[in-house]
Predict the structure.
Amino acid sequence: MPETLHARVEACYQQAEAFFKRTFARPTVSFRLRGQKAGVAHLTENLLRFNAQLYQENREDFLRQTVPHEVAHLVAHQLFGLRIQPHGEEWQLIMRGVYELPPSRCHTYAVKRRQVSRFIYRCTCADGEFPFSAQRHALVGKGRRYLCRRCKATLTFSGEQRSE
């Protein structure tokens, strides 16, 4: 799997070097990205992170669109510096001029949402419930308090947990 993507990253850099008639430092490539993003370019670290799951599920479009999209961010940074907008005219110039691709900001890949646990908190004044994330629930365990907006009483854990 990674060899094809690495080869595409290299091809994108060679295209940019031929277009701009200069060399660019190659990035470190990582497949440790999860969630909804297909790729992320870390400009100051010269690092590309890709979502392996989305790559496997959308290989052709990923190689055609996502890889050049992220490489264009690093190329734009090396050419124009940090003061440019992430999807501004410099990045768009590279997408259109170098890669001959539409400068699309977002992918349209289907992203499977993982199940999350919700911890149900309640207040004495209302019969409403307040679903807390696992992170927020853990903060309560460490002493953080959350207050009801209506009566300002401390929300308390009901003992109920749900998966969404």
Remarks:
- The mean pLDDT is 93.
- DSSP finds five helices and six strands in the chain.
- The first strand starts at residue 28 and ends at 30.
- The first helix runs from residue 2 to 20.
